[in-house]
Amino acid sequence: MANIKSAKKRILVNEKKHEQNVSIKTSVKTYTKKVKTLVAEGKKDEAKLMLNEAFAKIDHAASENVLHKNAAARKKAQLAKLVDSMK
Fold first, then answer.
1. So what's the pLDDT on residue 44?
2. Which residue from 3, 53, 65, 84 has the least number of CB within 10 angstroms?
3. Residue 86 contacts residue 70 (beta carbons within 8 Å)
4. What is the sign, positive or negative, of the torsion defined by CA atoms of 35, 38, 40, 42?
5. Other Cβ atoms within 10 Å of 48 Cβ, number
6. Cβ atoms within 10 Å of 49's Cβ, excluding its own
7. Rounded to an integer, what distance in angstroms lies between the CA atom of residue 21 and that of residue 52?
8. Tell me: the pLDDT tens digits for 24-47?
9. CA 78 to CA 7: how far, in whole Å?
């Protein structure tokens, strides 16, 4: 354990930020899974609506620097391609 006050504070701040980052990553994973499930079930209209929500979560993660901007763009492109490939 750190003895210096600033180091103690840094530990607390890092723990809090870690929890926030994990929460954001989890929401991104949840919404991508929802889109993939709807695609697998063949519900195109619902998948498109969920895709918009997933895009919002991915964009938020990228703006918070939880995801790299190129990784976010790649995830969005993969999901859009998946939804567009439905019949």
1. 93
2. 3
3. no
4. negative
5. 15
6. 13
7. 21
8. 999 999 999 999 999 999 999 999
9. 41
Per-residue tens of pLDDT for the chain, all 87 residues: 889 999 999 999 999 999 999 999 999 999 999 999 999 999 999 999 999 999 999 999 999 999 999 999 999 999 999 999 987
Q: Which helix (H) or strand (E) holds 3?
A: none
Query: Could you identify the residue written with the tokens 């859009």?
Result: 80
Describe the crossing of helices 5-41 and 44-63 by its angle, rounded to 10 degrees: 160
Q: What is the pTM of this model?
A: 0.89
Rg of the Cα atoms in the chain: 17
